[in-house]
Amino acid sequence: MTGDNGRMIRADLHLHSYHSGHAGHLTFLRARDCYSEPDAVYAAAKARGMDVVTITDHDSIDGCLEFLERHPDADDFFISEEIECRVLGVDLKVHIKAYDISERIHRDIQPLRRNVFEAVAYLRSEGVFYALNHPFFFFKGQLPLDDYLGLALRLFPAFEVRNGTMLAAHNELSEAIVGQWSASRPSPLTAIGGSDSHTLRGIGTTYTEASGSTRAEFLQSLRAGRARAGGRHGSTWREAREIYGVVGRYWTTLLGAGRQELSWPRRTLGLGFSALSMPFEFSPLVVAALHKRDEARRVTGYRRELEVRYPIGRSGSAGSAGFFLAPGAATEPPQ
Ligand SMILES: [Zn+2]
Ligand SMILES: [Zn+2]
Question: What distance in angstroms lies between residue 160's CA and the mean position of ligand 1's atoms?
Answer without folding.
Answer: 10
